[in-house]
Specification:
With 206 residues, the chain is of the alpha/beta class. It has seven helices and five strands, in the order E-H-E-H-H-E-H-E-H-H-E-H. A three-stranded parallel beta sheet has the order 2-1-3. The chain has a two-stranded antiparallel ribbon with strand order 4-5. Helix 3 crosses helix 4, helix 3 crosses helix 5 and helix 3 packs parallel to helix 6. The chain starts with 14 loop residues before the first strand and ends with a helix.
């Protein structure tokens, strides 16, 4: 954890990434003490889109509602499903592998995205806000690798089938893509090195 206390974002990382949501940029600014950093925005890093329920707070939901939206097959009304977020996680990882970077990437993203990225590796719980998650993945891209070509085509295929307005659940569709996305994440993420939870400062703020 010492590494994450004493680092230079401009020298110790190949790139700094944020989602295009305001709170991601705010977290970056606070975390880096408003250091002058040339961050890159990625829509793929967004939190799950709640659709008609956008603006709802998780802590304000009933136990039954929390249980419902935690299911892998759940889709928010006119919003995203967890499968959509897993697709974005795969696409983001795939994009980074193509760059063949030599230093780590520092990414500021959201809990739903992180859990979708790591669920295939057995990490089901959403990290606390402000936490640090260290992920080691296969950092290379071989244009001649048939697996990469097939998976890139799969991502393009899925992107054309995203329809927020469609509320019908297709079990065959879910099983096909969910298994392929999870297979890719299991193979490409070598290790979840650690999750460093942010301290709960709520009592100190009272």
């Amino acid at each position: 954890m010492e590494y994450f206390v004493n680092f230079d974002a401009n020298k110790d990382f190949s790139e700094v990434h944020i989602s295009d949501l305001l709170r991601s940029k705010e977290t970056l600014d606070i975390s880096l003490a408003y250091e002058d950093v040339k961050e890159k925005k990625f829509q793929e890093l967004r939190e799950i889109y709640f659709g008609d329920q956008e603006g709802y707070f998780y802590d304000g939901l009933t136990k039954e509602e929390k249980s419902q939206i935690s299911k892998a097959t759940y889709k928010f009304p006119k919003g995203e499903s967890w499968l959509n977020v897993k697709y974005r996680a795969c696409k983001y990882l795939n994009q980074n592998q193509r760059k063949n970077l030599h230093l780590p990437i520092l990414s500021f993203t959201h809990g739903g995205f992180i859990s979708s990225l790591l669920s295939a590796k057995g990490h089901k719980r959403i990290p606390q806000p402000g936490s640090v998650v260290v992920i080691n993945y296969k950092n290379y891209f071989d244009e001649n690798d048939k697996k990469f070509k097939v998976f890139s085509n799969l991502l393009n295929e899925f992107s054309k089938k995203i329809d927020y307005k469609n509320e019908d659940f297709d079990e065959v569709f879910f099983n096909k893509y969910n298994s392929l996305f999870e297979e890719y994440l299991i193979e490409q993420i070598l290790e979840v090195e650690g999750t460093y939870e942010a301290p709960d400062l709520s009592e100190e703020l009272l």
